[in-house]
């Protein structure tokens, strides 16, 4: 009896030990898998994309002009990588289509005139977009600001195309304070807060300056984000695009703008400078928020302009693409050779200039690879993975690019190596001219370049807090000089009524047609 009871006790004890052992093993396996997944997510960088709308090459001060200081944008450039040959499309919808799809806009039928408000057209629903790819890698995806890729039905809106949330406007532009757009004589409110639960018009920030409203939202998202999950935040600014209101160049505070930029004689250019300043301030706020919330140390922050500035004409804002020829809507360099820079602590040997060709289609494979994805997952695309070039300084693989083909007006252009082939000019010939402010470094009519303002900017201070170091004056001046593009003096420019060929290496301002030398 005692033996039987003792045997039963031993069996129960052994069973309990086995059960505890199994439970412990399961716990360790689950914990390891969770920790492994968490570590994998932590290794994926947070990606912040900032898009400036209609900003010209000469409107960031790191390119050599002292007229409009951009200390926060300059801080990104000097502490990261300057993309000196970054190409976009000449107008917004095609450029953004290429960014989101990694393919030339013509492949989606989006290569022509940008979408009008309410136009029943958009990127085909079968086309997978950048935020959808990143979402599959575990990213939280947020869009703040401009969409402009179609909203003919709910399925075309950003919260149905890969973004977890959207706060902004669907069409190409709005008024900075009222957040409205007028099309075909009818005015409507175009400000929305969308998510998976629904699409809702938003009136909460009416009569507030759009650039600040979008910056507020971006900062809020960063502050509330759980850093254990990778974040893709796209801040697609309205600025410095012209407003849709009677006052086409709306500033945050014109009295302050007048005092700061009193030396700019053209009053429209002066207002534009105020709009660019607000944009630059937003970059500083985003960088400070990333640093304060311990996200910057594992982030990629990139900024680029969607196309050249429209100095004159439709939606003119007095932006400058100097020294390039052309402006928004032009296939010349002023319309498509755009501002771009990338900052990240992941970049090796920062403070570099990349002279290789980079195209807006490249961002899909580049960011996907940086996020840990296999670019082979993307299928056949036109974009090329530039992450090894940006991060490690490897030689770029892009040797050519399609500027655009617009068959409706029989206009096209492409770049192969140093050569650019262009067929016909803009429908409005003046758009192909040399336009915009020519203020250059050393011009006595404007204040000198202020290196102290760069080193004390919120962006620089955020970088210093995160990295313990930042670009010093000698480095800043060297990079600024090297990032400038200068042209030989000229008195005449080629009239490209049919086909022109330019050597961009020797003639970046596209003044001399050499097609007869290369029949």
TrEMBL record:
State which residue ranges cross the membrane.
12-30
Looking up InterPro entries in the UniProt record yields: Alkaline_phosphatase_core_sf, ARSB, Sulfatase_CS, Sulfatase_N
Keywords on this record? Calcium, Glycoprotein, Hydrolase, Membrane, Metal-binding, Transmembrane, Transmembrane helix
**Which metal ions or organic cofactors does this protein require, according to UniProt?**
Ca(2+)
Q: What terms describe the molecular function in GO for this protein?
A: metal ion binding; sulfuric ester hydrolase activity
Q: In what residue span(s) does the Sulfatase N-terminal domain sit?
A: 45-372
Coiled-coil stretches: none
| One Pfam family, short name | Sulfatase
Q: Which family does it belong to?
A: Belongs to the sulfatase family.
Stated name of the protein: Arsb_2 protein
What organism, scientifically named, is this protein from? Answer: Fopius arisanus
The record lists the lineage as: Eukaryota, Metazoa, Ecdysozoa, Arthropoda, Hexapoda
């Amino acid at each position: 009896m005692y033996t039987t009871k003792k045997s039963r006790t031993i069996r129960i004890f052994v069973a309990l030990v086995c059960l505890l052992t199994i439970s412990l093993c399961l716990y360790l396996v689950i914990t390891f898998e969770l920790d492994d997944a968490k570590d994998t997510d932590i290794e994926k960088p947070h990606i912040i994309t900032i898009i400036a709308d209609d900003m010209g090459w000469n409107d960031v001060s790191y390119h050599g002009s002292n007229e409009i200081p951009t200390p926060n944008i300059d801080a990104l450039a000097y502490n990261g990588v300057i993309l000196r040959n970054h190409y976009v499309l000449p107008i917004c919808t095609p450029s953004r289509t290429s960014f989101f799809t990694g393919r030339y806009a013509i492949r989606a039928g989006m290569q022509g005139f940008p979408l009008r408000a309410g136009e029943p057209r958009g990127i085909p629903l079968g086309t997978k977009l950048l935020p959808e790819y990143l979402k599959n890698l575990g990213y939280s995806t947020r869009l703040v600001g401009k969409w402009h890729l179609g909203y003919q039905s709910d399925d075309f809106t950003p919260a149905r195309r890969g973004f977890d949330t959207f706060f902004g406007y669907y069409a190409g532009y709005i008024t900075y304070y009222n957040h409205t757009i007028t099309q075909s004589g009818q005015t409507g409110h175009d400000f929305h807060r969308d998510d998976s639960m629904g699409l809702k018009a938003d009136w909460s920030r009416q009569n507030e300056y759009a650039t600040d409203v979008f910056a507020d939202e971006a900062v809020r998202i960063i502050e509330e984000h759980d850093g254990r999950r990778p974040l893709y935040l796209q801040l697609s600014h309205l600025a410095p695009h012209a407003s849709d209101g009677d006052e086409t160049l709306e500033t945050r505070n014109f009295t302050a703008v007048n005092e700061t930029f009193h030396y700019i004689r053209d009053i429209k250019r002066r207002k534009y400078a105020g709009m660019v300043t607000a944009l630059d301030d937003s970059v500083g706020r985003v960088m400070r928020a990333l640093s304060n919330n311990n996200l910057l140390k594992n982030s990629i922050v990139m900024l680029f302009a969607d196309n050249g500035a429209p100095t004159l004409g439709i939606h003119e804002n007095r932006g400058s693409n100097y020294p390039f020829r052309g402006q928004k809507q032009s296939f010349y360099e002023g319309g498509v050779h755009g501002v771009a820079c990338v900052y990240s602590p992941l970049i090796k040997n920062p403070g570099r200039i990349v002279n290789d060709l980079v195209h807006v289609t490249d961002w899909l494979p580049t960011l996907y690879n940086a996020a840990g994805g296999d670019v082979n997952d993307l299928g056949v695309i036109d974009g090329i993975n530039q992450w090894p070039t940006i991060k490690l300084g490897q030689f770029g693989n892009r040797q050519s690019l399609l500027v655009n083909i617009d068959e409706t007006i029989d206009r096209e252009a492409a770049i192969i190596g140093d050569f650019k082939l262009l067929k016909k000019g803009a429908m409005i010939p003046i758009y192909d001219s040399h336009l915009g402010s020519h203020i250059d470094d050393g011009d006595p009519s404007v204040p000198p370049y202020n290196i102290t303002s760069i080193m004390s900017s919120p962006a620089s201070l955020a970088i210093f807090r995160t990295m313990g170091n930042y670009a010093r004056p000698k480095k800043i001046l060297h990079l600024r000089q090297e990032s400038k593009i200068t042209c030989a003096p000229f008195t005449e420019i080629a009239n490209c009524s049919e086909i022109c060929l330019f050597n961009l290496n020797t003639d970046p301002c596209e003044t001399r047609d050499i097609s007869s030398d290369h029949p």
